[in-house]
Write a structure and sequence with these properties.
Oligomer: single chain
Distance between the termini: 13 Å
CATH topology: Aminopeptidase
Largest sheet: 8 strands, mixed
Structural class: alpha+beta
Strand order of the largest sheet: 1-2-3-4-5-6-8-7
CATH superfamily: Gcn5-related N-acetyltransferase (GNAT)
CATH architecture: 3-Layer(aba) Sandwich
Number of helices: 5
């Protein structure tokens, strides 16, 4: 799966298109509505154990795809969230989102992701996450990226393990997932731990 590291828009913080091998990352769009719904519906049973939920009494999330995308785009303009759609062979297959961007003395963000089960096991998600982290350490000029994963989510754990992210702790009852507060294993990487490209760990010379 080797290929061009990024598209000609390299150096642009957002919006941006990134490509490596057959994987293309671009901003999630209103035009993705039908494909997004189809993939999410078909994968509902597979994704429900890992999807964030809103705890009782908290503010409700956007109730439609349109309002979700508009909220994400507004957050992107504010520089707090960057939602990437994943395409493989011109087909929408999932999403990687940079969340909770903190500037100032922290220069920190977290990353969440999900993928169509039909294309799981092909190395797509490790590649997509590597591309996003490279972009975070490059044009977005962040210093530290964190990924929180439920201990039972073996597919997501393989992603961070393939990329060599360091595990640094367990967060009890960290996020509300599938209707309850769930423990998460915490992984992180800093710019100093990846002086080149994280993609090089997948495509060594």
């Amino acid at each position: 799966m080797s290929g061009a590291r990024v598209s000609p828009s390299a150096g642009v913080a957002w919006p941006v298109r990134l490509s490596s091998g057959p994987v293309l990352l671009r901003p999630l769009s209103l035009r993705d509505r039908d494909a997004w719904r189809e993939v999410r519906t078909r994968n509902a049973a597979w994704l429900v154990r890992w999807d964030a939920t809103v705890p009782p009494g908290a503010d409700a999330r956007p109730t439609s795809y349109r309002s979700l995308v508009r909220t994400l785009h507004r957050q992107a303009r504010l520089g707090t969230t960057y939602p990437f759609a994943i395409e493989v062979d011109d087909r929408f297959v999932g999403q990687v989102t940079v969340n909770n961007v903190v500037r100032g003395s922290a220069q920190f963000a977290s990353i969440g992701y999900w993928l169509d089960q039909d294309v799981a096991g092909r190395g797509i998600m490790p590649r997509a996450v590597a591309m996003v982290i490279d972009h975070c350490f490059g044009p977005l000029r962040l210093h530290r990226i964190e990924v929180a994963i439920r201990p039972e989510n073996s597919n997501s754990l393989r992603v961070v393990e393939k990329l060599g992210l360091r595990e640094y702790g367990l967060a009890p009852r960290y996020l509300h997932i599938d209707g309850d507060w769930r423990d998460h294993r915490l992984y992180a990487i800093t710019r100093e731990e990846c002086p080149g490209s994280l993609l090089d760990r997948l495509d060594p010379a």
